[in-house]
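We emphasize that the prediction below concerns an isolated chain of 149 residues; any contacts that depend on oligomerization or on bound cofactors are therefore not represented. The input was used exactly as deposited, without trimming of termini.
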Amino acid sequence: MEMNRYLSLMLLWCIACAPSTNKNGDAQEHQPSEVIAPEKLPTEGEPVKEEVNIPSKEEELPVQESGSDVYVTHEGDKYHTADCRYAKTANPVSINQAKADGKTACGICKPNSKTGEKQLRCSGTTAEGKRCQRMTTHNSGKCYQHRDS
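Result of the prediction step, given as a C-alpha cell string:
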C-alpha cells in the first residue's frame, strides 16, 4: 500500500507540474492549484472527504441536447462529428444551422446516424436473396440502390 501512496503522490506532482494550454493548444502561464501537504493526505483505511459543489436551481447550467452539435471547418462544405479526423480545425454549430448553410454530411463519420436523424435498414433484397445491409433515411424505406426496383 505504501507503493500506491507513492504512485499517487508522483501522479499529483506530474499533474501539478505539467504545462497548461488553452483551447488553441498555446502554452499559458501556469496557475498553481491548491497543494495538499503529505501529512494532510488520508492514511490507509481513512475515508476520503471530498467537497462537491452542487449548483442550486438558480445556478443550473443549460441542458444541451446530446448529438445536436456538429463540426464545420471554415472553408469546408461538409459537417462532421467531434471525433472525425476531418474535424480537427472545425467549429461547433447546430446540425440545423449546418444544413441551412448548405453543408452536407461527411461520408467518413456519418454524422446523421449519430445526431438523431432516423435511419432504417433497407427493405430491399440482394441478388442472393438476402436482405440489404444498408441504412436509409429515405421515406420509401429503401437505399439508393433499391429505390428503382
